[in-house]
Amino acid sequence: LERFIAPDGTVPPGSAGALAGTLAASILSTACGNAVEECRSERVAEELIAIREKSLSLRRDLFALMEHGTQAARKVAAVRAAAGRPEAERLKALLFASEVPLRIAQSCQALLNLSLRALGRIGVRCIAEIGTASALAFSGVVGGIVTARTYLAGIPPGTGIGAAVTRKRAERILRESESLRTQIIDHVRQHLP
What we know:
Elements: H1 2-5, H2 16-38, H3 42-81, H4 87-119, H5 127-152, H6 163-190
Helix pairs in contact: 2-3, 2-4, 2-5, 3-4, 4-5, 4-6, 5-6
């Protein structure tokens, strides 16, 4: 994180969604950890610990996906720059590159699911953290989907390499994530003073 917030730091191409998701996972895991300390129910405490552990796992995955996103962007740039390469190789590179941001979007969608689960188990005291984490997670979904769709835009329809299925998957992830975000926002609003 420090390398991104430094004055000369940059976010590698295609990694903004993973960075937002990483922050979301950190906030969510901290909120769950704090809530466990105040929890009176053993069952709820176990659920919060499970949410915290899954959030930390997703944070590790998203850190790794930042690097994979950078590698995928470099591969696409290299294939585009190389003259005389077969068109099929370029299309496959674009399809392969689209998988990384889709995995970022899926991981951020999982964080939205975890945020929704945590809302029912965390007291009002941590609701701001859950709201913030879910907003960041949704930003990660959008960042991943936009990056994936940018790669997929370079693949004409009807090429037969699976881009249509990947486009549908991207739309499904976005649609389901929008629904989760709406549920979380509604729940947060109910608890506003």
